[in-house]
Known about the structure:
8 strands, 20% helix
Amino acid sequence: MIYTFECVDINNESNKYDIKQGTLGSFSIDQIKKINIAYEQANFKGKTKPFLHQYIGGASFFTAMEPKIYVGLKIITKQDETLAIYISNTPVLYHSDSFFKDEKLAKNILKAFQTVLKMSN
């Protein structure tokens, strides 16, 4: 089964996934130890290891105080390497329409990975 998204292609038949936004490259599905949705603070993207500066979230009464973030998937490999798949093309405000759109896509991609991982075990 092949899943194709703008930011990643997942190919169960070849046991590979190709990251097109984030940590670019082709990686082995069976080397995934952990995968989850993560939110990276926009001002740190590309300056440190992926998702080192994550936004945890919380209630804010002033939308001007909400930080801009990138929605993505954080993958930890069996070699303890951190890989990033960025869903957001540009920084989004937490709890904005763009945020919810990107988060929904991240959930769909995560579900595809979970399906493929379950089939490979």
